[in-house]
Protein backbone atom coordinates (compact mmCIF):
# COMPACT_ATOMS: atom_id res chain seq x y z
CA UNK A 1 0.00 0.00 0.00
CA UNK A 2 1.45 3.36 -1.01
CA UNK A 3 2.19 6.03 1.58
CA UNK A 4 -0.74 8.35 0.92
CA UNK A 5 -3.24 5.49 0.94
CA UNK A 6 -1.72 4.22 4.17
CA UNK A 7 -2.01 7.60 5.91
CA UNK A 8 -5.77 7.74 5.31
CA UNK A 9 -6.47 4.17 6.34
CA UNK A 10 -4.26 4.37 9.45
CA UNK A 11 -6.05 7.56 10.49
CA UNK A 12 -9.40 5.90 9.91
CA UNK A 13 -8.38 2.85 11.96
CA UNK A 14 -7.25 5.13 14.79
CA UNK A 15 -10.54 7.01 14.65
CA UNK A 16 -12.57 3.78 14.83
CA UNK A 17 -10.46 2.59 17.77
CA UNK A 18 -11.14 5.87 19.59
CA UNK A 19 -14.81 5.70 18.61
CA UNK A 20 -15.17 2.22 20.10
CA UNK A 21 -13.04 2.58 23.24
CA UNK A 22 -13.10 6.19 24.45
CA UNK A 23 -15.72 8.67 25.60
CA UNK A 24 -14.46 11.86 23.97
CA UNK A 25 -15.99 14.28 21.43
CA UNK A 26 -15.66 12.35 18.16
CA UNK A 27 -16.23 15.55 16.16
CA UNK A 28 -13.04 16.88 17.74
CA UNK A 29 -11.13 13.80 16.64
CA UNK A 30 -12.27 14.24 13.03
CA UNK A 31 -11.45 17.95 13.17
CA UNK A 32 -7.91 17.14 14.30
CA UNK A 33 -7.59 14.58 11.49
CA UNK A 34 -8.83 17.19 9.01
CA UNK A 35 -6.31 19.72 10.34
CA UNK A 36 -3.47 17.22 9.88
CA UNK A 37 -4.49 16.56 6.28
CA UNK A 38 -4.83 20.31 5.70
CA UNK A 39 -1.29 20.96 6.91
CA UNK A 40 0.01 18.24 4.58
CA UNK A 41 -1.84 19.75 1.63
CA UNK A 42 -0.85 23.34 2.40
CA UNK A 43 2.78 22.30 2.73
CA UNK A 44 2.53 20.77 -0.74
CA UNK A 45 0.32 23.33 -2.50
CA UNK A 46 0.80 26.51 -0.43
CA UNK A 47 -1.99 29.01 0.22
CA UNK A 48 -4.72 29.62 -2.37
CA UNK A 49 -5.25 32.97 -4.12
CA UNK A 50 -6.44 36.02 -2.18
CA UNK A 51 -10.08 35.60 -3.21
CA UNK A 52 -10.16 32.05 -1.90
CA UNK A 53 -8.41 33.10 1.29
CA UNK A 54 -11.20 35.66 1.71
CA UNK A 55 -13.84 33.02 0.94
CA UNK A 56 -12.25 30.67 3.48
CA UNK A 57 -12.47 33.38 6.14
CA UNK A 58 -16.11 34.10 5.27
CA UNK A 59 -17.09 30.43 5.48
CA UNK A 60 -15.21 30.09 8.76
CA UNK A 61 -16.96 33.09 10.32
CA UNK A 62 -20.41 31.93 9.17
CA UNK A 63 -19.88 28.41 10.54
CA UNK A 64 -19.01 29.87 13.95
CA UNK A 65 -21.64 32.64 14.03
CA UNK A 66 -24.31 30.07 13.09
CA UNK A 67 -24.24 28.84 16.70
CA UNK A 68 -26.17 31.96 17.64
CA UNK A 69 -29.11 30.14 16.11
CA UNK A 70 -28.87 27.69 18.99
CA UNK A 71 -28.25 30.15 21.78
CA UNK A 72 -28.49 33.95 21.54
CA UNK A 73 -25.48 34.52 23.76
CA UNK A 74 -22.22 36.10 22.54
CA UNK A 75 -20.24 33.56 24.57
CA UNK A 76 -21.54 30.80 22.31
CA UNK A 77 -19.23 32.21 19.64
CA UNK A 78 -16.26 30.93 21.62
CA UNK A 79 -17.74 27.45 21.38
CA UNK A 80 -18.33 28.16 17.71
CA UNK A 81 -14.58 28.27 17.17
CA UNK A 82 -14.66 24.45 17.32
CA UNK A 83 -16.19 24.71 13.86
CA UNK A 84 -14.76 28.02 12.71
CA UNK A 85 -11.08 27.14 13.09
CA UNK A 86 -11.25 23.72 11.34
CA UNK A 87 -13.36 25.27 8.59
CA UNK A 88 -10.76 27.95 7.95
CA UNK A 89 -7.80 25.55 7.87
CA UNK A 90 -9.51 22.96 5.69
CA UNK A 91 -11.03 25.53 3.32
CA UNK A 92 -7.58 27.00 2.64
CA UNK A 93 -6.26 23.52 1.82
CA UNK A 94 -9.29 22.50 -0.26
CA UNK A 95 -9.21 25.68 -2.34
CA UNK A 96 -5.45 25.51 -2.78
CA UNK A 97 -5.67 22.02 -4.29
CA UNK A 98 -8.69 23.08 -6.36
CA UNK A 99 -6.75 25.97 -7.95
CA UNK A 100 -3.53 24.07 -8.57
CA UNK A 101 -4.71 20.53 -9.31
CA UNK A 102 -8.35 20.75 -10.35
CA UNK A 103 -10.62 17.73 -10.16
CA UNK A 104 -13.50 19.53 -8.44
CA UNK A 105 -14.95 23.02 -8.08
CA UNK A 106 -16.66 25.23 -5.53
CA UNK A 107 -19.45 26.19 -7.93
CA UNK A 108 -19.80 24.00 -11.03
CA UNK A 109 -19.91 26.10 -14.20
CA UNK A 110 -18.96 23.68 -16.96
CA UNK A 111 -22.43 23.37 -18.41
CA UNK A 112 -24.81 25.40 -20.58
CA UNK A 113 -26.95 26.73 -17.73
CA UNK A 114 -24.78 26.73 -14.59
CA UNK A 115 -27.24 28.73 -12.44
CA UNK A 116 -30.11 26.39 -13.27
CA UNK A 117 -27.91 23.35 -12.72
CA UNK A 118 -26.76 24.70 -9.36
CA UNK A 119 -30.38 25.28 -8.26
CA UNK A 120 -31.61 21.87 -9.41
CA UNK A 121 -28.69 19.95 -7.92
CA UNK A 122 -28.66 21.70 -4.55
CA UNK A 123 -32.33 22.38 -3.87
CA UNK A 124 -33.59 19.29 -5.69
CA UNK A 125 -31.32 16.81 -3.95
CA UNK A 126 -31.65 18.67 -0.66
CA UNK A 127 -35.45 18.50 -0.79
CA UNK A 128 -35.47 14.76 -1.49
CA UNK A 129 -33.00 14.05 1.32
CA UNK A 130 -34.91 16.35 3.69
CA UNK A 131 -38.09 14.32 3.14
CA UNK A 132 -36.19 11.06 3.72
CA UNK A 133 -34.66 12.51 6.87
CA UNK A 134 -38.09 13.39 8.27
CA UNK A 135 -39.19 9.79 7.82
CA UNK A 136 -36.42 8.48 10.06
CA UNK A 137 -37.00 8.08 13.81
CA UNK A 138 -35.37 10.62 16.09
CA UNK A 139 -35.78 12.98 19.01
CA UNK A 140 -38.44 15.66 18.77
CA UNK A 141 -38.00 19.24 19.92
CA UNK A 142 -39.96 22.44 19.58
CA UNK A 143 -41.27 22.60 16.02
CA UNK A 144 -41.92 25.87 14.21
CA UNK A 145 -40.31 28.20 11.69
CA UNK A 146 -37.56 30.52 12.87
CA UNK A 147 -34.80 32.43 11.13
CA UNK A 148 -32.52 31.31 13.97
CA UNK A 149 -33.02 27.71 12.88
CA UNK A 150 -32.08 28.62 9.33
CA UNK A 151 -28.94 30.27 10.70
CA UNK A 152 -28.03 27.27 12.85
CA UNK A 153 -28.35 24.91 9.88
CA UNK A 154 -25.53 26.80 8.16
CA UNK A 155 -23.09 25.30 10.64
CA UNK A 156 -23.38 21.66 9.51
CA UNK A 157 -23.88 22.81 5.95
CA UNK A 158 -20.51 24.55 5.91
CA UNK A 159 -18.37 22.99 8.63
CA UNK A 160 -19.28 19.35 8.00
CA UNK A 161 -19.11 19.60 4.23
CA UNK A 162 -15.75 21.35 4.27
CA UNK A 163 -13.91 19.93 7.29
CA UNK A 164 -15.37 16.42 7.41
CA UNK A 165 -15.86 15.73 3.73
CA UNK A 166 -14.19 18.04 1.20
CA UNK A 167 -10.79 17.79 2.84
CA UNK A 168 -10.69 14.07 2.02
CA UNK A 169 -11.63 14.78 -1.57
CA UNK A 170 -8.86 17.36 -1.84
CA UNK A 171 -6.31 14.98 -0.32
CA UNK A 172 -7.28 12.13 -2.62
CA UNK A 173 -7.38 14.28 -5.74
CA UNK A 174 -3.98 15.75 -4.88
CA UNK A 175 -2.08 12.59 -3.98
CA UNK A 176 -4.00 9.51 -5.10
CA UNK A 177 -4.59 10.83 -8.60
CA UNK A 178 -0.94 11.83 -8.71
CA UNK A 179 0.07 8.27 -7.85
CA UNK A 180 -2.24 6.95 -10.57
CA UNK A 181 -0.96 9.52 -13.07
CA UNK A 182 -3.81 11.22 -15.00
CA UNK A 183 -6.63 9.04 -13.65
CA UNK A 184 -7.43 7.74 -10.20
CA UNK A 185 -7.42 3.98 -9.82
CA UNK A 186 -10.52 2.10 -8.64
CA UNK A 187 -9.05 1.70 -5.17
CA UNK A 188 -8.21 5.42 -5.06
CA UNK A 189 -11.79 6.33 -5.99
CA UNK A 190 -13.16 3.87 -3.42
CA UNK A 191 -10.83 5.31 -0.76
CA UNK A 192 -11.90 8.86 -1.57
CA UNK A 193 -15.65 8.26 -1.35
CA UNK A 194 -15.32 5.97 1.67
CA UNK A 195 -13.42 8.63 3.61
CA UNK A 196 -15.87 11.30 2.50
CA UNK A 197 -18.91 9.68 4.10
CA UNK A 198 -18.14 6.85 6.55
CA UNK A 199 -16.09 8.76 9.18
CA UNK A 200 -18.67 11.56 9.23
CA UNK A 201 -21.51 9.07 9.63
CA UNK A 202 -19.65 7.27 12.42
CA UNK A 203 -19.54 10.30 14.74
CA UNK A 204 -23.32 10.37 15.15
CA UNK A 205 -23.22 7.59 17.71
CA UNK A 206 -25.32 5.03 15.83
CA UNK A 207 -24.71 1.30 15.67
CA UNK A 208 -22.86 -0.35 12.80
CA UNK A 209 -25.82 -0.93 10.48
CA UNK A 210 -27.40 2.45 11.26
CA UNK A 211 -24.08 4.16 10.53
CA UNK A 212 -23.79 2.45 7.14
CA UNK A 213 -27.42 3.29 6.32
CA UNK A 214 -27.11 6.96 7.27
CA UNK A 215 -23.82 7.21 5.42
CA UNK A 216 -25.26 5.77 2.21
CA UNK A 217 -28.52 7.72 2.41
CA UNK A 218 -26.99 11.12 3.14
CA UNK A 219 -23.21 11.15 3.20
CA UNK A 220 -22.67 9.45 -0.14
CA UNK A 221 -25.03 11.77 -2.09
CA UNK A 222 -23.29 14.81 -0.59
CA UNK A 223 -19.90 13.32 -1.46
CA UNK A 224 -20.93 12.70 -5.07
CA UNK A 225 -22.35 16.22 -5.27
CA UNK A 226 -19.09 17.73 -4.09
CA UNK A 227 -17.17 15.88 -6.76
CA UNK A 228 -19.66 16.30 -9.60
CA UNK A 229 -21.73 19.45 -8.99
CA UNK A 230 -19.51 21.54 -6.73
CA UNK A 231 -18.84 21.91 -3.02
CA UNK A 232 -21.32 24.80 -2.73
CA UNK A 233 -24.20 22.68 -4.03
CA UNK A 234 -23.50 20.04 -1.37
CA UNK A 235 -23.39 22.77 1.27
CA UNK A 236 -26.78 24.15 0.22
CA UNK A 237 -28.33 20.67 0.06
CA UNK A 238 -26.95 19.80 3.52
CA UNK A 239 -28.18 23.12 4.91
CA UNK A 240 -31.65 22.45 3.52
CA UNK A 241 -31.83 18.97 5.07
CA UNK A 242 -30.95 20.28 8.53
CA UNK A 243 -33.06 23.43 8.21
CA UNK A 244 -36.16 21.37 7.42
CA UNK A 245 -35.41 19.00 10.29
CA UNK A 246 -34.98 21.86 12.76
CA UNK A 247 -38.23 23.48 11.63
CA UNK A 248 -40.33 20.30 11.64
CA UNK A 249 -38.77 18.31 14.48
CA UNK A 250 -37.12 21.08 16.47
CA UNK A 251 -33.50 21.47 17.53
Percentage of residues in DSSP E strands: under 5%
What is the number of E strands?
0
- Average pLDDT works out at 90
Q: What's the order of the H and E elements? A: HHHHHHHHHH
Task: Give me the secondary-structure category.
Answer: mainly alpha
What does the model show?
With 251 residues, this protein is mostly helical. The chain contains ten helices and no strands. α1 packs antiparallel against α2 (26-45), α5 (114-135) runs antiparallel to α9 and α7 runs antiparallel to α8 (186-202).
Overview in brief:
By secondary structure, the chain is mainly α. Helix content is 76%, strand content 0%. The chain has helices at residues 3-21, 26-45, 50-65, 76-100, 114-135, 147-152, 154-179, 186-202, 208-228, 231-249.
Comma- or semicolon-separated keywords:
mainly alpha; 251 residues; 10 helices
Write the layout of secondary structure elements.
Elements: H1 3-21, H2 26-45, H3 50-65, H4 76-100, H5 114-135, H6 147-152, H7 154-179, H8 186-202, H9 208-228, H10 231-249
Amino acid sequence: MKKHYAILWIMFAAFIFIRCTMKIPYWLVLSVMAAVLSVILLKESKLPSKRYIALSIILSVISAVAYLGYQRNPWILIYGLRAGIPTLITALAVFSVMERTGGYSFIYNKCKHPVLWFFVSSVGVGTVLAVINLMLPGEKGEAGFSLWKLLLALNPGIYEEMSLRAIYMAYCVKFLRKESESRMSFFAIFTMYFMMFIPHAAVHGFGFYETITVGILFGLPFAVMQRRTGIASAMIAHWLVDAVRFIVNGI
